């Protein structure tokens, strides 16, 4: 059986190999406990004109964290699918002046509901929330709708 | 008087100097006619695991195009302000398989309304729409709310 550590290492390697901006932003997986995925990017390569974190980097870290949480949920169930984000909203409540640390927690009930018909329909949709804090305050709130299609065989 | 060409050159230089991901994504200004700002990023450094444009790059190009349109509108009016995006929504309708070309058109009435009280209040807010096409079809629809504060003196 594939360990969680092997899965998250594969996830990060996929990002860095296949998504050049993820490598440039040095986006990496820092923790996964089976429900919450934590992804981090260093401040220095993600700063903006104000000396805080770039809005596009904050979004990219969030959209990849949600994508990664979906990818992990699929793999844990022995499913294979092509995951794309269909739409998303992001609110920037506070500036982030240090490393960008994003968390996405999946709800078992939501995952089971989303994947219930996947094997027969070949399509699933999942709404996920991701957050980035600064200190102990919420800095960024992200919601993304991910659509999963069966991979062509 | 500063020419439009000098302004857009300054805008792009600012992005590449102060925002490392904008340089990594090679995001550049291609045209500005005083109303529509066109920004482009090459496909090769912005691809994803599917061999199409990365959602985070599409967002980054959009958020910077809106920021740039706001920056140009301020400069053309002899105003100075610190511009941040407060919130945004993005819909990914079609995959983009070539260069990422984003357009943002500002409406003179909206700009005048947004900047009307800026000199006295020191704050303005602007809702902008940006789009990215693939072929002759709309691929990405972005809306962003930008907040401008008078720069500390």
What does this structure look like?
Two copies of one chain form a homodimer. Chain A is α+β, with helices and mostly antiparallel strands and 153 residues long. Chain A has a single domain (4-150), classed as Roll (Thiol Ester Dehydrase, Chain A), CATH 3.10.129.10. Chain A contains five helices and six strands, in the order ααββαββααββ. The first copy, chain A, has a six-stranded antiparallel beta sheet with strand order 1-2-4-5-6-3. The A-B interface holds A 14, 18-22, 24-25, 44-50, 54-57, 59-60, 63-64, 82, 84-92, 95 and B 14, 18-22, 24-25, 44-50, 54-57, 59-60, 63-64, 82, 84-92, 95.
Structure, briefly:
Chain A is an alpha+beta fold. Chain A is 35% helix and 36% strand.
What is the total number of structural domains of chain A? 1
**Tally of separate helices of chain A:** 5
SS-based structural class of chain A?
alpha+beta
User: Which CATH architecture of chain A would you pick?
Assistant: Roll
Order of helices and strands of chain A: HHEEHEEHHEE
Assembly category = homodimer
Q: For the largest beta sheet of chain A, what order do the strands appear in spatially?
A: 1-2-4-5-6-3
How many angstroms does the end-to-end distance of chain A come to? 23 Å
What name goes with the CATH superfamily of chain A?
Hotdog Thioesterase
Overall form of chain A: globular
Tell me about the largest β-sheet of chain A.
6 strands, antiparallel
Largest interface, C-beta closer than 8 angstroms, per-chain residues: A-B, 34 and 34 residues
Q: Mean pLDDT of chain A, rounded to whole units?
A: 95
Percent helix of chain A:
25-40%
Low-confidence stretches of chain A: none
CATH class of chain A: Alpha Beta
Radius of gyration of chain A: 15 Å
Strand proportion of chain A: 35-45%
Find the count of extended strands of chain A (DSSP E, 2+ residues). 6
CATH topology of chain A: Thiol Ester Dehydrase, Chain A
